Amino acid sequence: MNYAEKFLEALKKGILILHEKEKEEHPRIIGKYHPSSIGDCLRKQYYEFYMEETPSEEKLVIFATGKGIHEIITKILKESNVTQVEASEFETELDFGEYKLHGRVDIIILNVDSEKAIVEVKTVSKLPKEPLQKHILQLQTYLHALKLNNGILLYWDKRKGKLETFSIVKDDNILNILKERTHVLHEHIVNKKEPVKEMVLKEEFFECLNCEYKEICKPLKMDIEEGSEIVVLEIENVLLNTEKRKEACLKELNLDLNIDLKEIDSSLREQFFNLYYSEKYLSYDEPIHENIDKALKYYMQNKSLVIITNRPKKMKKATIDQLIDLGIPYEQIFMRNDFHKGLEFKLAIIKLLQLSGYKIYDIMDEEKTLKKIKKRLNL
Ligand code: SF4
């Protein structure tokens, strides 16, 4: 091992020790839970309590980066003449009686009007447009615990060097949510019973993909045996030819039928897709018998059919009606959220199906997409 390698080893060891020390300051005690996690999947919190995983090297580096940024922000604020830092890393507790939320407030500031506010700092790789619900829950915990009215959520984009802040005002309705969530978590922990797969129910599949416990949880486990073979199917231009729907949408918007959608202005493109992914011209879709027969043949060979489609969730009812009309006996359907890119969504679901114990026997999708999926998944 050369000198640089030894140095790297020492650095990694140091981060791990720092992380261990931090953990010792937050021992796992029944009835005492963390504000920073209370907005996370309840099942994940349960696993964290009973079977904590050793953090990956990547997570440890992210932890160290976050710590460094927190410290520098406190220093920066102390230097400013606008606000005064009253405390940092301040321990506090929101007590619900039998159970409580116990954590440390990042920073308490006194602003120009001598009013106190809590600052919660989040280091991110991309600034959110809205504050994340789990961060709001964390900050609301501190506001209620310290009986303060004002909070600031500061997002620090470590990649692009950008900052964003959101004002959060103490909200009594959120206090009820916090109490309810802590109660549910507590009951499951006391009774050693896994909570529901909250992120699956909310269809927050990317949360599952990033979850350390996905292999234990098996988030997409269905009513079919582990090890079963699955055929993944798209609807658009696989089971149904959507060409006529596309044409009708282009005509309605007075667009040339041969236009390249990538070339048009973004607001017009948005109008097109809002129309295309609606029920208005859905009846124009035509069955692609060759692919429908292929899917049914798979079904007869005991493969389970799982639909993963680019269609958004708002089309769910109409889509299910179409699938019933086509006679497709599917096991499960996954529909994209508006903010997900189709390919990334499909990749996430396929990975989660594999992690949940299923074998992907075949994928039926448009040629271009299929190539990309196979390349990204090494299939
Ligand atoms: S895999 Fe998903 S549902 Fe399961 S614990 Fe993790 S976040 Fe929750």
Summarize this entry quickly.
It is built from 14 helices and twelve strands.
Describe the structure.
- The radius of gyration is 25 Å and the shape is globular.
- It contains 14 helices and 12 strands.
- Helix 1 (3-25) packs across helix 3, helix 2 crosses helix 5 (172-190) and helix 4 packs across helix 5 (172-190).
- It has 379 residues and is an alpha/beta fold.
- The protein has helices spanning 3-25, 42-50, 57-79, 133-146, 172-190, 198-201, 205-209, 214-217, 243-252, 266-276, 289-300, 316-326, 342-355, 367-377; strands at 32-33, 84-95, 100-110, 116-124, 150-157, 162-169, 229-233, 240-241, 286-287, 304-312, 330-336, 359-364.
State the main characteristics.
Lambda Exonuclease, Chain A, 379 residues, four-stranded parallel sheet, Rossmann fold, 3 domains, alpha/beta, binds iron/sulfur cluster, 14 helices
